[in-house]
Amino acid sequence: MADFTVRVELRGGSEGDYDALYVAMEKSGYLRIVQADDGSWYQLPSGEFNLRNSDLTVRQVADFAKQVAENIRQGAWVIVTQAVARYWHTDKTK
After folding, report:
1. DSSP 27
2. Residue 84: its pLDDT value, please?
3. What would you report as the CA-atom Rg of the chain, rounded to the nearest whole angstrom?
4. pLDDT digits over 31-87, tens only?
5. Which member of 51, 62, 65, 78 has the greatest number of CB atoms within 10 A?
6. Does residue 44 form part of some domain?
7. How many structural domains compose the chain?
8. What is the CATH number of the domain that holds 32?
9. What is the mean predicted confidence (pLDDT) over 1-22?
10. Residue 50 forms part of a structural domain
11. Which residues form the domain of 55?
């Protein structure tokens, strides 16, 4: 099982498009938060998602995210990185 960081850019997308993307991605298991080793949760930047404990390949994660994004706005860009380790400076959520 692997963790992934997913970046989606809705080319020419509006704030409303991104709001719809966030809802659709969350329903598909892509979170907008990431958990630290101490159990604290942190917000990810706009257009970034966290997919945890998945047995999908990097390509499958990217293709699925692209499919979700294309339902919101055609021409979406997607980049996926399999996480070995992560560190961030963002706001704590919980």
Report:
1. H
2. 85
3. 13
4. 999 999 899 999 999 999 999 989 999 999 999 999 999 999 999 999 999 988 888
5. 65
6. yes
7. 1
8. 3.30.70.2360
9. 95
10. yes
11. 2-83
CB proximity list for 78: less than 8 A, separation 6 or greater:
6, 7, 8, 9, 62, 65, 66, 69
CB 35 within 8 A of CB 53: no
Residue 92 lies in a domain: no
* Model-wide pTM > 0.85: yes
Dihedral of the alpha carbons of 25, 30, 36, 39, in degrees to the nearest 10: 100
Q: Does residue 12 form part of some domain?
A: yes
The per-residue pLDDT for 50 is: 96
Handedness of CA 53, 46, 6, 18 (dihedral sign): positive
Q: Where is 12: in which H helix or E strand?
A: none
Percentages (nearest 5) of helix, strand, coil residues in the chain: 30, 30, 40
